[in-house]
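It is worth pausing here to work through a concrete case rather than discussing structure prediction in the abstract. The textbook approach is simple: state the sequence, then state the predicted structure, then interpret. We follow exactly that order.
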Amino acid sequence: MKASVQILIGIAFIALTACSTQEVKQDTNIVSAPAKLPTTPEDSLQSSAQNPPLTLLKNDKTLNLVRIMDGGACKNDFQGAKGAFLIYADPADIDRIKDEKGPQVFSDFEIKIQAFSTTAFQSAIDASNLNEDPFALGADEAQEKLMKQVSANFHNSVANAVNLFQQETSLTIDVVPFPPSFMFYQQGCDATHVEPVNR
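Step two, the predicted structure:
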């Protein structure tokens, strides 16, 4: 009986520890952890965690979080958004490419990923209805609807670019939005004043 109580207390302690938020290290390279990111933007919105998952499952491969990129886009003078995007890559591919071509090739990869992600985010913002939702039951619901819409549009916009990049480089990646970081503008867009930053 005493042992089972100690086990329950231990499990409760682990659960509480897992729920605490910690800042993501800015110099993250390849990080592995057991957490899994849902494979669709809608699933990722249901996660209550404010920290990005360190791994993502794609085509039966576990990809590791390698970069966090900030970006912003304006639809017009009034509307737009800014937020963070997570870049995941296959660690086995990274090791193989380092052996074949050297680590310096990843600087070029990073520039390409940033370029097509920025374009995809602009397309996602252009395709999204950023007007205030008169049917939303409050600011939280309105924000959640916008996050879902922009996330889905980004996922659709970036998919072809990700596939083309993988074919050209043989590096399996994924680029996904991090909805909890999104900030929307509806009365004056200054999203473009924030330069995309790699962390």
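Step three, interpretation. Helices lie at 2-19, 41-45, 91-101, 105-127, 139-169. The first strand starts at residue 55 and ends at 58.
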